[in-house]
Amino acid sequence: MRPFIRLFTGRLREAPTVLRRGPLRTDAFSSRLHDPRVASLLGMWLGVAFGVCFLTGLVSHAMQHPPSWLVWPSRPVSLYRLTQGLHVTTGLACVPLLLAKLWTVYPRLWEWPPVRSVAHALERLSIVPLVAGAVFQLATGIANIAQWYRFRFFFTVTHYWVAWITIGALGVHIAAKLAVVRANVGRRRGERSRLTDRVSAPEQPGGGLSRRGLAVAVASAAGVIVTTTAGQWVPGLSGLDLLAPRRPDIGPQRLPVNRTAAAARVTAVARAAGYRLEVVGPRPFALTLAGLRGFPQHTSRLPITCVEGWAADATWHGLRLRDLLDAAGIPAEATVRVESLEAGGAYRTSEVNPAHARDPLTLLATGLNGADLDIDHGYPARLIAPNRPGVLQTKWVHRVVML
Ligand SMILES: Nc1nc2c(c(=O)[nH]1)N[C@H]1C(S)=C(S)[C@@H](COP(=O)(O)O)O[C@H]1N2
Ligand SMILES: [Mo]
């Protein structure tokens, strides 16, 4: 018992001889890259990428699931495109940064003594949710953008809450490591040499990758990932999209499809001659397709921005939602619900707040890029509004209801 207590009170300064093997032997990790300076530098890059990813993720999440007190503005038109695009891009850039960082610091798992104080124990424990959370977020995020839903849990909710756990653990970690980072970043070589650390190895002449070499390699990997995927949402860069799961210009009518009419089982009802658009308000009415075309026709240039990280501009034709609401006597401050012909599915309806419903760019579109809407893009009519997540741009609309 006593050696055990001494182990955790730090009085056992050296690892017992029986344990001094494998990763616990002296000089088990000889690379000079397992050092606090490299760890601090990678940690700072990772902190910036992760921080941007977290904040943009929060904004995107709040746009998709607005709390009751928040009415999102409909402008700027592409705000969601920016937040969600940055979210996915910075998340992808975290992959090489995180791998390099974990490799740099993993020898510390065998740090001796394992625990020096309560604060040290807590700091070490916070590594578990930090690493597990970061790996989980990147893995589920990548699975999501690749539409690879092999997990049983609901992605949106889990990804959101694990983000909070991870950022909390990151806060603890940064607070604990601030002194080490200060001592290692932004100072001159001579000043840095004061810093002592058990796992830091002296610069060895010749052989192995230098610190600068590692920094260049990691930054290049992140740079390649960013430039070959950002074209998914940044206009004009789609030609570089070698690693992106989607090309924003490929699909029917040069626009990707998220869920096809066949997958949503709406092909027959959407094409049925008996199609009517119902508008439910103080003066309810129903319109045939010809009736829809009888309304003043408008054109809006607006992007579809999918939560999966792709965004594509398109030219939409149709009637303004606000003209439809006015005709039904629906007041300007009303929120409406747009309902799809789709019988089930998480995205069969969406709510449109007054700012979006009344925006002159918001259409019930019946046409896309100069032709009738393709069935996979929501024929006979779909919602398209500025600054709105793709999941809320309801397709195959057949009812608009005042709430
Ligand atoms: N009824 C219905 N509308 C829907 C969806 C859906 O599953 N059902 N998917 C949404 C999602 S996630 C996106 S990104 C956009 C994509 O529109 P597009 O397929 O025309 O590009 O449609 C949205 N509209
Ligand atoms: Mo989407």
Describe the structure.
Strands 2-1-10-5-6 form a five-stranded mixed sheet. Strands 3, 4, 7, 8 and 9 form a five-stranded antiparallel sheet that branches. Helix 3 packs across helix 5. It folds into two domains: 2-240, no CATH class; 253-402, Alpha-Beta Complex (Sulfite Oxidase, Chain A, domain 2). The protein is 41% helix and 13% strand. The model is unreliable at 192-201 (pLDDT under 50). The termini are far apart. The chain has 403 residues and is an alpha+beta fold. The protein is elongated and about 85 Å long. The chain has helices at 2-9, 36-64, 79-105, 118-125, 127-145, 155-184, 189-192, 211-227, 267-271, 289-294, 321-327, 354-357; strands spanning 277-280, 285-287, 297-305, 311-320, 336-340, 349-352, 363-368, 371-372, 382-384, 397-402. The site of the ligand Nc1nc2c(c(=O)[nH]1)N[C@H]1C(S)=C(S)[C@@H](COP(=O)(O)O)O[C@H]1N2 has 21 residues, from loops.
The percentage of residues in β strands lies in 5-15%
Strand order of the largest sheet: 2-1-10-5-6
Bound molecules: ligand MTE, molybdenum atom
- Give the SSE order as H and E letters: HHHHHHHHHEEHEEHEEHEEEE
Number of domains: 2
Helix content: 40-55%
- Radius of gyration, in Å, reads 27 Å
- Class derived from helix and strand content: alpha+beta
**What coarse outline follows from CA principal-axis ratios?**
elongated
Tally of DSSP helical segments: 12
What is the residue-averaged pLDDT? 92
**What is the number of E strands?**
10
- Calculate the terminal CA-CA distance, rounded to whole Å: 68 Å
**Unreliable runs, pLDDT <50, ≥5 residues?**
192-201
Please outline the major beta sheet.
Answer: 5 strands, mixed
